[in-house]
Design goal:
With 469 residues, this protein is α+β, with helices and mostly antiparallel strands. The protein has 16 helices and nine strands. Strands 1, 2, 3, 4, 5, 6, 7, 8 and 9 form a nine-stranded mixed β-sheet that branches. The model is unreliable at 451-469 (pLDDT under 50). The structure holds adenosine-5'-triphosphate and magnesium ion (3 copies). The site of adenosine-5'-triphosphate (ATP) has 18 residues, from strand 3, strand 8, strand 9 and helix 5. Belongs to the class-II aminoacyl-tRNA synthetase family.
């Protein structure tokens, strides 16, 4: 049974053999790209190579790219712990052509790797194509001999890939694996497609357009290929598992979490362990790439992920900071593939330890307040926005942490109430400034804050957030 580390090597080796340059993962903080919060796919570092702004000394590349999807167009934070297939941090394996090969080669590459190199039975696979893309459908028929009912035409954005609100994009074809009738879920495009029976493993994008801010789109001068396959998803498959969290690497982290908390990895704390394992990876890799917890921008997204994880640690009944004690296990697994992780180990541990120590000073009291409020609410009632705001303002609970805590209890936050409590506090702050005799400076400050948005909230209103960083 191949390990994730082995699968990563096999993938890169396969494309290297086929004339692709093995390129290192780019950092999680995109270089010179104000439109994107974190690197969310393999194509990010090649964006300008697709649009023709930049030429490279190779026109075929392959990567294992670190990705974080915890904000912006692709946000999987709320899926973690609840689906078999989503992480906030994952590795995307990809092959790229910059104006070199196109559909008729990209499809056979993917098919051969999956069915020959990896030995996945053909009957378990099905594909989707963009509804107007007859070309892709024909190619699949020819290359894989798939019957028409296994080539599903999709008219939605699921088969038109975009990195964010702007940038290179195009129709895509995706490969799905059928995990069998025992698992709930329908094929792509059906009403039950959100289930976990049919798992999307690989997306092959035919890069041929560029989207602009004003909504217009142009055809790119050259036709390119951008693909992405989640290492953890193909790993689950090749390890005979259905669930990403049962792959070797994730499983070791879950067991470490269970050991440190003296809990059963598969007992009632199961979701907590999964969230902890996932969030440990995203926070550690973000810190290794230079993000530090703060109250604004990327740093606030990091802090939100950390604090969410810390609440889950608390829910396991652990009294002392625990996240930092899981770092050695992570580094021992991934430090060889990502040396920046090993280099940053002391910083990661210290940052996690001090954040958790600090947050623990208010976490317990905040959770008690929350429980108290809930016990007074009518059955199924939403948490008043004012309470969520108090938790945010006094106890350091990011809104999404409160929402995550409520979800286990089938409740939600009254968001309008939260927003108005926030607006009220801002108005008070403005009035206080105005009364302080520093009116002119204050007016300027508030104008700037309003023009650029309150940065603390980056990541809530995520579409807007992307544009603001
Ligand atoms: P899904 O529909 O399952 O959310 P996606 O369509 O959002 O996936 P893409 O943007 O097409 O995913 O990314 C390419 C590939 O990256 C996916 O086919 C999948 O293998 C992997 N992937 C995407 N999101 C995640 C995630 N949150 N965790 C792990 N792997 C992921
Ligand atoms: Mg998704
Ligand atoms: Mg999808
Ligand atoms: Mg997809």
């Amino acid at each position: 049974m191949p390990s994730l580390n082995e699968i990563r090597s096999t993938f890169l080796g396969f494309f290297e053999k086929n004339g692709h340059r093995v390129v290192e993962s780019s950092p999680l903080v995109p270089r010179n790209d104000p439109t994107l919060m974190f690197t969310n796919s393999g194509m990010v570092q090649f964006k300008n190579a697709f649009t023709g702004l930049e030429t490279r000394d190779y026109n075929r590349a392959t990567t294992a790219q670190k990705c974080v999807r915890a904000g912006g167009k692709h946000n999987d934070l709320d899926n973690v712990g609840y689906t078999a297939r989503h992480h906030t941090f994952f590795e995307m394996l990809g092959n790229f052509s910059f104006g070199d090969y196109f559909k008729s080669e990209a499809i056979p590459y993917a098919w051969n790797l999956l069915t020959k190199e990896f030995g996945i039975p053909k009957e378990k696979l099905l594909v989707t194509v963009y509804h107007t893309d007859d070309d892709a459908a024909e190619t699949w028929k020819k290359v894989a001999g798939l019957s028409d009912d296994r080539i599903i035409r999709i008219a939605t954005n699921d088969n038109f890939w975009q990195m964010g609100p702007t940038g290179p994009c195009g129709p895509c074809t995706e490969i799905f694996f059928d995990h069998g009738e025992d698992i709930w879920g329908g094929p792509p495009g059906s009403a039950d497609e959100d289930g976990d029976r049919f798992i999307e493993i690989w997306n092959i994008v035919f890069m041929q357009n560029e989207q602009f801010e004003d909504g217009s789109m142009r055809a790119l001068d050259m036709q390119s290929i951008d693909t992405g396959m989640g290492l953890e998803r193909i790993g689950a498959l090749l390890q005979g598992k259905h669930d990403n969290y049962d792959t070797d690497l994730m499983r070791d982290l879950i067991e470490a979490s269970a050991n440190l908390s003296s809990n059963d990895p598969d007992g009632p704390g199961k979701v907590h362990h999964r969230v902890i394992a996932d969030h440990l990876r995203s926070t550690s890799f973000l810190i290794a790439d230079g993000v530090m917890p703060s109250n604004e921008g990327r740093g606030y997204v990091l802090r939100r992920i950390m604090r969410r994880a810390m609440r889950h640690v608390h829910m396991l009944g652990v009294q002392d900071p625990m996240m930092h004690r899981l770092v050695p296990e992570l580094v021992s697994q991934m430090g060889a593939a990502y040396p920046e992780l090993s280099r940053a180990q002391p910083l990661i541990q210290e940052t996690l330890r001090s954040e958790e120590t600090r947050f623990r000073q208010t976490l317990d009291r905040g959770l008690r307040l929350l429980d108290d409020e809930l016990s007074r609410l009518p059955e199924g009632g939403n948490l008043p926005g004012e309470t969520a705001f108090k938790l945010y303002d006094t106890y350091g609970f990011p809104l999404d942490l409160t929402q995550d805590a409520l979800r286990e209890k089938g409740r939600a936050v009254d968001i309008e109430g939260f927003d108005s409590a926030m607006a009220e506090q801002k108005a008070k702050a403005r009035a206080a400034w105005a009364g302080s005799g520093e009116t002119k400076d204050a007016a300027i400050w508030f104008d700037i804050a309003e023009q650029h948005g309150v940065t603390e909230f980056l990541g809530y209103d995520t579409e807007e957030a992307e544009g603001q960083i």
